[in-house]
Amino acid sequence: MLLDLRTVQQLDLAAVVADGNYAKEPIVETVTGHGLPFISRLPRNANLNDLYTGEHPRRRGRKKKFDGKVDFSDLQRFDLVSARPTERVWTQVVWSVQWAREVRAVVIQQIGKKGQVTGYAVLFSTAVTMPAHEVMALYRSRFEIELIFRDAKQFLGGQDVQLRSQQGIEAHWNVVLLTLNLCRLEALRAAGGGQDLVFSLEDMKRRAYNALLAQVILSNLDLSARFEE
Predict the structure, then answer these.
(1) Is 198 helix (H, G, I), strand (E, B) or coil?
(2) Which of 152, 175, 126 is nearest to 17 (CA)?
(3) Where are the beta strands (DSSP E) in the chain?
(4) pLDDT band per the 50, 70, 90 thresholds, residue 197
(5) For residue 13, what are the CA distances in angstroms to 21, 102, 162, 184?
(6) Contact by Cβ (8 Å): 45, 22
(7) Binning pLDDT at 50, 70 and 90, where does residue 65 land?
(8) SS3 at position 24
(9) Could you tell me the residue ranges of all domains in the chain?
(10) Range 51-59, long-range pairs (CB < 8 A, 24+ positions)
(11) Which of 59, 91, 107, 227 is the most exposed place for a label (fewest CB within 10 A)?
(12) Which of the pair, 113 or 189, is modelled with greater confidence?
């Protein structure tokens, strides 16, 4: 599938972003083998090593490559990217033992009211030259995609299909996603455009149902609506 995407000239892929469940060796090797960076989330017990950057002693044998295991509770070897009252971001190029390659790790710490670290998340990118803020922006863009699948399944019957053929299932999902896109377009027009759109398909379905119910009541009582509502 990734190879097919690379052949589509209209697509300009910056990276492949996936949930932490897909951060497996076969997927990472497949994506990077097609020349695409892979961005995902690491578990807190990820097996990472610090890269040795000091002077190499004059002795026989291979030069020292690693300098201990990464400890996320002690980020002295990481570079501070940004610090806000509620969040601190650290980054460093480290060695992934699982994939036997260098990756850029980005640690996002949540800061409490008293300045203590209340939690953290670890992101990574196989493109070690990618800036930390770009890794964060690309990974957080997944959130909108997850909302699309949630709305399609919960409110538009994405899984309520009794078709077995691939063509029929694809047609069903095309109709579901088309309906979702039209609803988002209507909400965007109602809000006057802008990037701060708060979209809720559940609210739109409720308003549409209420409008339909009001029309049924008025038509059965042979009345006309006196108010726009």
Answers:
(1) coil
(2) 126
(3) 16-17, 38-42, 48-51, 66-69, 79-84, 87-96, 101-111, 117-125
(4) low
(5) 21, 21, 34, 24
(6) no
(7) confident
(8) coil
(9) 16-141, 143-221
(10) 51/93, 51/94, 51/95, 51/102
(11) 227
(12) 113
- Rounded to two decimals, the pTM is 0.67
Strands 38-42 and 117-125: antiparallel
Residue 57 backbone dihedrals phi, psi, to 5 degrees: -65, 150
Per residue in 129-139, pLDDT (tens digit) is 999 999 999 88
Mean pLDDT of 92-119: 91
| Spatial contact of 203 and 184, defined as CB atoms under 8 Å apart | no
The residue behind tokens 């549409």 is 208
Beta-carbon contacts of residue 17 (< 8 Å; ≥ 6 apart): 39, 40, 138, 139, 141, 142
Question: What distance in Å separates the CA atoms of residue 148 and residue 229, rounded to the nearest whole number?
Answer: 29
Point out which residues pair with 90 in neighbouring strands.
80, 107
Question: How many other C-beta atoms can be found within 10 angstroms of the C-beta atom of residue 96?
Answer: 21
Measure the CA angle with vertex 81, ends 75 and 84; round to 5°. 95
Strand partners, 82: 89
Compute φ and ψ for 66, nearest 5 degrees: -115, 155
Assess contact for 109 and 117: CB atoms under 8 A: yes
Helix (H), strand (E) at residue 33: helix 25-33
| pLDDT classification of 11: cutoffs 50, 70, 90 | low
